[in-house]
């Protein structure tokens, strides 16, 4: 697989020269300075592409060309936003950038409750504590009927373990972790500039009242059918990212969580340009998913791979696991054998060796990802040697 790296543009503290030195071949990035829904002009696309190529690398994947919320819930400006999206796709195609990672998750791009969960070796990782998330949903967000969405054991943990330690600062940190620090840097709906993030978040949830999973699937199919002619013309592969975590949260419909969900959206739009970002980490956060089996089943419709893995706990919590986890080795073996041309990037590696002092985006450390890239590169080299 092509070894790629998510890079956040010229202002990223991790430079392209650094990435070339550690064996990165392709760059995964976006035009983060362009607001969601606006057209990416050919000039802006070429400016980024040329900047990357001037550093001896190539722009392998767009992650992401954001899908506006109004497209997801079928707002009155949906068709115009889709036309803008098509124009941006055409400009990417003209520039030769032909792999687009996107998501169709309502409101929240991904969710963690802790960004520096300590590991025994002194590093730290992202972590999802289901009881803390329940506290956020019930006591901070105060979503109507939220209690009904959690099992009794989670509610017990929330009452007995979480609530007693939740003062104003702890609540602020939880809000920051769930809806600010994990969202703003990925063109999310909430940024650190928002003075009332909880109130804004509630207003976004309101947009999805009456939108169930079937309606969201229909809206996704509408969007994909509209853009497929452009994808056909320029040979562009659209690859949706699985929901993270792969379960229903905040009363929102989630439609890319499991085998049946993946099969449904591929069947709804059978065009081969409609494909999957195989994020082993997102899928493995749900104990219901057999990740290596899903990798084998959907290899032919996978256009991009996120190499990470999660370890779900019996109580519904999950944490990032080692990149040497046997399940991830099986995933890498699948794609290195069946789809070696597919771009791959490591993801959500630990904070280590001073990463925590550098102000990197949550989940996107330098030393931790460099270690992960070395691990996965070793797997790939071993698999390639076995084929000879």
Structure characterization notes:
By secondary structure, the protein is an alpha/beta fold. Helix content is 42%, strand content 14%. It is built from 14 helices and twelve strands. The strands form two sheets. It has an eight-stranded parallel beta barrel, surrounded by four helices. A four-stranded antiparallel β-sheet has the order 5-6-11-10. Strand 2, helix 2 and strand 3 form a beta-alpha-beta unit. Helix 2 runs parallel beside helix 4 and helix 12 runs parallel beside helix 13. The protein is globular, with a radius of gyration of 20 Å. The mean pLDDT is 95.
Summarize the structure.
The protein is an alpha/beta fold and 388 residues long. The chain contains 14 helices and twelve strands. Helix 1 (16-21) links the parallel strand 1 (2-6) and strand 2 (26-29).
Question: What is the topological layout?
Answer:
Elements: E1 2-6, H1 16-21, E2 26-29, H2 42-53, E3 58-63, H3 69-73, H4 78-95, E4 99-102, E5 114-118, E6 124-128, H5 130-140, H6 152-162, H7 168-180, H8 197-206, H9 213-234, E7 237-240, H10 259-268, E8 274-279, H11 280-284, H12 291-297, E9 302-307, E10 310-312, E11 318-320, H13 326-338, E12 343-346, H14 367-387
Parallel strand pairs: 1-2, 1-12, 2-3, 3-4, 4-7, 7-8, 8-9, 9-12
Antiparallel strand pairs: 5-6, 6-11, 10-11
């Amino acid at each position: 697989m092509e070894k790629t790296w998510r890079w956040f543009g010229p202002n990223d503290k991790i430079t392209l020269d650094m990435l070339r030195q550690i064996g990165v071949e392709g760059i995964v990035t976006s035009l983060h300075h362009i607001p969601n829904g606006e057209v990416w002009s050919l000039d802006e696309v070429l400016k980024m592409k040329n900047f990357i190529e001037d550093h001896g690398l190539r722009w392998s994947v767009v992650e992401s060309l954001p899908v506006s919320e109004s497209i997801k819930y079928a707002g009155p400006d949906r068709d115009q936003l889709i036309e803008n999206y098509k124009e941006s796709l055409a400009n990417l195609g003209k520039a030769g950038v032909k792999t687009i990672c996107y998501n169709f998750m309502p409101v929240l791009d991904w969710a963690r409750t802790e960004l520096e969960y300590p590991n025994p070796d002194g590093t730290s990782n992202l972590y999802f504590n289901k009881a803390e998330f329940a506290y956020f949903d019930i006591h901070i967000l105060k979503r109507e009927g939220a209690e009904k969405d959690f099992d009794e054991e989670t509610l017990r943990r929330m009452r007995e373990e979480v609530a007693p330690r939740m003062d104003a600062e702890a609540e602020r940190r939880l809000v920051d972790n769930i809806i600010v620090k994990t969202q703003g840097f990925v063109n999310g709906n909430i940024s650190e500039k928002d003075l009332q993030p909880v109130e804004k978040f509630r207003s976004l949830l309101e947009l999805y009242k009456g939108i169930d999973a079937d309606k969201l699937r229909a809206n996704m199919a509408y969007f994909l059918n509209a853009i497929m002619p452009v994808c056909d013309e320029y040979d562009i592969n659209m690859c949706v990212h699985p929901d993270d975590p792969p379960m229903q949260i905040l009363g929102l419909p989630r439609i890319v969580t499991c085998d049946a969900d993946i099969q449904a959206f591929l069947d709804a739009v059978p065009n081969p340009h409609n494909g999957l970002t195989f994020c082993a980490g997102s899928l493995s956060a749900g104990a219901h998913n057999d990740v290596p089996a899903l990798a084998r089943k959907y290899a032919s419709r996978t256009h991009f791979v996120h190499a990470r893995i999660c370890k779900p706990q019996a109580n519904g919590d999950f944490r990032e696991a080692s990149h040497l986890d046997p399940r991830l080795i099986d995933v890498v073996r699948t794609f290195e054998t069946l789809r070696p041309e597919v771009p791959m990037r490591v993801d959500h590696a630990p904070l280590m060796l001073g990463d925590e002092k550098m102000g990197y985006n949550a989940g996107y450390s330098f030393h931790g990802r460099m270690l992960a890239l070395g691990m996965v590169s070793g797997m790939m080299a071993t698999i390639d040697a076995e084929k000879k």
